[in-house]
Amino acid sequence: MRRVARGPAARVPVRGQVHRAIGALVRQRAAWLSGVVLATIVLAAATPALAQAPPPIGHWRSRTSTAQLLVYQNGSCAFLGTQPVQGTCSWNASSRGGILTLQYPMPLEPGKIYFNIIWVNQTTITVFGEYFYRQ
């Protein structure tokens, strides 16, 4: 005749039951995690890549002032205004324009000027809101 345990001992699961419960929990969590990973991949693939504006290579002149901006393919550039500056340029693009950084030599460390540039069309840009036209 079998004895039936009563009290706290009756609630202790058999070793096989514990392993099955843990295995079911692990499978459930793995299925959830794989669903999240799949959804992330699908959303990333469906998101269109943002277009990057090209650098303003060329000779640009303002009609309202005597300022000129010269940007060359090899990375050299100059800004001719009240205080002419020349050096090397780097371009940090955005969707409609970008930041043109002109780095020029100074006695202690290089100087930098950051130009906020927005493309209006193929022959027109704005530099800090002032219109410049391709020459």
Task: Give an overview in words.
The structure is a single chain. This protein has 135 residues and is α+β, with helices and mostly antiparallel strands. The chain has two domains: 8-46; 58-134, Lipocalin (Beta Barrel). It contains one helix and eight strands; from the N terminus they run αββββββββ. The protein has an eight-stranded antiparallel β-barrel with strand order 1-2-3-4-5-6-7-8. A hairpin with a 2-residue loop joins strand 7 and strand 8. It is elongated. The chain starts with 14 loop residues before the first helix and ends with a strand. The relative contact order is 0.13.
Keywords:
elongated; 135 residues; 2 domains
List the topology elements:
Elements (H helix, E strand, L loop, with lengths): L14 H32 L11 E5 L5 E4 L4 E5 L4 E9 L3 E8 L6 E11 L2 E4 L2 E5 L1
Antiparallel strand pairs: 1-2, 1-8, 2-3, 3-4, 4-5, 5-6, 6-7, 7-8
